[in-house]
Amino acid sequence: MKAVRIAWRVTCLNFRAQLEYRAEFLLMIAIGAVWQVSVIVFATVLLTRFTGMGGWDSSEVLLIPATRMLAHGLFVLVLGRMHFVGRQIQEGRIDIYLVRPMPVHRQVQLAYFPTNAIGDLTVAAGLMAGALSRSGLDWSAGRIAYLVAAVVGGMLLEAALFTAVAAAALRFPAADYWSNWLEELLGTFGSYPLNVLPRAVSGFLTYGLPLAFVAYFPAAVLTGHGHDTGVPYWLAALSPLLGALAYLGSRLLWRWSLGHYAGVNG
Amino acid sequence: MSGSIEVRGLSRTFHTTVRRPGVAGALRSLVNPERVAKHAVSDISFDVAAGELLALLGPNGAGKSTTIKMLTGILTPTSGEARVAGVVPYRERERNARNIGAVFGQRTQLWWDLPARESFAILRDIYEVPKAEHASRLREFDDLLDLSSFWDTRVRHLSLGQRVRCDLAAALLHDPPVVFLDEPTIGMDVVVKEQVREFLRHQVEERGRTVLLTTHDMTEVERLAERVVLINHGRLVLDGGLDEIRRRFGSTWQVRATLADAHFEVVPLPGIAVLSHDGPQVVFGPEGADAPTVHQALKAVIERYEVTGIAIDEADLEDVMRAAYVQAGVA
């Protein structure tokens, strides 16, 4: 409880601090929204020009970017500071965190308030509302619960990928650049049914970099395409759980890397 | 809780890739990297008693910061042992963090976008300091460091001196028995430096804190430390009291005498050399291992010659440490 209270207090203070720089605050929200412009364009083109994609109709496809965007927005809000760990290492911030009686990972997350997450989440909420309103599915309690689990699982899977990169950056700060590539990849391929891609690419995005588990597989399960994903149905259905397990694994990796932290400048 | 520091055979080795010169060399390093071990700290041992202020000195790259990082739990040593207030810092990082305060002069532990006072409040929660105790300690630090005139300003807008004063307060608000200061006064003006030194002296003498200080400022060492550990290339080369170091390396005094008779024959005295003789002006200096102290030399010169004027030039700590560095192979 104490940890939650401190985290909440620091977050409120950080948020208040951001509010005091009005122009900077609004710009950050705008950049969060504008960053997702490719997704918005994709959704618009999808709905106005095509009837479907890879055997999915447009309203079903829309559930993929909506789930991914919401998961991404929550990741940026809750765990997204892993993205800039390399910079925090270079600035010696990690050294400071290590001399405080608080987990370093938590301190990294509490370093500042991610104002851009407001823009991300606004776009994501709009997209999800649009996807749900166009969906012809029966939104039973079970399906809604699975969607919520999918969003949380997607957030954790994205966090796992960035935490793994951050863990590598603790030992090799230049590894932080990989997080830019990762973000680019998630933005580029995260919105499509991956069965439209060549088998090698979709295989890589399933077993190499498990992007498919963020939104594609959960959306497939929700829309009844779960048997046509190229992986066993149970594996696709377990995406939220795999996200949670991947996150736990990445935290263990982070902890191990922190034990071997060498810092900069000796 | 005892605030002592025990260091036994502490070593830290980093592995780096050798940089070969030129583009071809860089490409060769990429294809066939040559890894070398860099011994940042090698087998150093020393103790700091509870309530003692020890200055850890050495040139840039000597291993001072690496030593402090191991004692604060930031780095894990390659070998050796260290205990800080009874805790092995790199094994029990969070427990050690409750016992120590740390100030790294070139980086802040305050939240950059928040006023310093908000950072103090967050640290109070993190360290679980009772509110009344926190308020009373903050009042005390305000009296000594004059914090209240700027503690409501965001840290990013503070001057260096203001920021480091806030950092000092932040490091000590949870009343740690041991404090690590890595070049705390670097870049400060003389007035603020003196204020910080006064604060540190108060923390050692009145509060009994153990302080391990690294600095390149010999005035600071002279004002604050009674004992010095000198390291170079990661090895401990000298561990002693300031008096002892002065005795070993500081006998670089000069006695400048003006003789009553310019034609008086000047002869060397035991352990005292004539460095120059120009008319009535004579400069004496120490000679040999058994050279007298400056006061003994003064007495001997006055007894031997009729003098109309006399002055003493005694080496300050900067000179003493320079001599120590030279003899220790540092310079």
Automatic annotation (TrEMBL), chain A:
Sequence intervals crossing the membrane: 25-50, 62-80, 110-132, 144-170, 204-225, 231-248
Name of one Pfam family that matches: ABC2_membrane_6
Protein name: ABC transporter permease
Coiled-coil blocks: none
Keywords: Membrane, Transmembrane, Transmembrane helix
Origin: domain of life: Bacteria
Organism, as annotated: Streptomyces phaeofaciens
Lineage per the UniProt record: Bacteria, Bacillati, Actinomycetota, Actinomycetes, Kitasatosporales
Automatic annotation (TrEMBL), chain B:
Record domain ABC transporter: where: 18-258
Location(s), subcellular: Cell membrane
Topology class, membrane: Peripheral membrane protein
Alphabetical UniProt keywords: Antibiotic resistance, ATP-binding, Nucleotide-binding, Transport
GO molecular function: ATP binding; ATP hydrolysis activity
GO biological process, one term: response to antibiotic
GO CC, alphabetical: plasma membrane
Pfam families hit by this protein: ABC_tran
InterPro entries for this protein: AAA+_ATPase (IPR003593), ABC_transporter-like_ATP-bd (IPR003439), ABC_transporter_ATP-binding (IPR050763), P-loop_NTPase (IPR027417)
Domain of life: Bacteria
Protein name (database record): ABC transporter ATP-binding protein
